[in-house]
Design a protein that fits this description.
With 311 residues, the chain is of the alpha/beta class. Helix content is 27%, strand content 24%. The strands form 2 sheets. The chain has an 8-stranded mixed beta sheet, with helices on both faces. Strands 2-1-4-5 form a 4-stranded antiparallel beta sheet. The longest helix is centred in the middle third of the chain and has 18 residues. 38% of the residues are buried. The mean pLDDT is 89.
Amino acid sequence: MLEPPPLLEVQDLRKHFSVPGGVVRAVDGISFSITRGQVMGLVGESGSGKSTIGKLVLRLLEPTSGKIAFDGIDISKLPRRRLRALRRRMQMIFQDPYASLNPTMRVRDAIGEALTIHGLAASRVPELLQAVGLAPGFAGRFPHELSGGQRQRVSIARALAVEPDFIVADEAVSALDVSNQAQIINLLLDLRRRLDLTILFISHNLAVVQNIADTVAVIYLGRLMELAPAPTLFATPHHPYTIALLSSIPIPDPDLKRQRIVLTGDIPSAVNPPSGCVFRTRCPVAMPRCAIEVPPLRLLGNNHISACLRD
């Protein structure tokens, strides 16, 4: 059976920022695709470029170069007036639900604003609140009257208001406690099933990603280190960076121990990245050739690729 074409396809995506002293290579040649109805997890430490990628694929940031194809349409250079017509199909859930909601707007207005802009019926607000597990009575409340989990549900309802095909969830549960994280993850999975949503789920928490993603892309210093179906990546990780990240996932069993791999130092400056493999300065198994050669992405198996010079 032929695989359906991807809803989102990114090719050699780059975003460079000019700063005093040089150029920040925030995203440096990233390629991936997401099949319709799938969830891709995008993971990496803070500063790796995950959020920048999320904003680039929605054209909230302009790419320096590369191609972004949404449902077969190259949107990387699409004029703003033509891009507006696609905005309904692409939405974002931000990390901090309090900062992303206007504190002076009631819930009904925060959700209804998107409906009004796109000429949709504002009467759908109660229906949208119920879809995310909130009673219609929440429509009259202000953000400060809600808990963190309730605010994030409002943010999800706002994103769903225009009936999108594709959602970028940028650290959507990182500001919540564990119980609320689980509830929001279950809500996203339920909405994905009922509405056939395609999701780019950005997170630094691999334990969360393991519970929601179909495929996982691991990013370091703006570059793709490893990409694989989620079961494959968690069972047989190849790249040393992925292995180190996975070693940090807690095991909910006091009798089981996992050998923790502690990476020393911080992510190097994106203004002056290391030569060769950008991870080599923190890699526990780096070889002399890692300082010279930029590792190409190699196919290891079925849809499993890794950028590492080791066999």
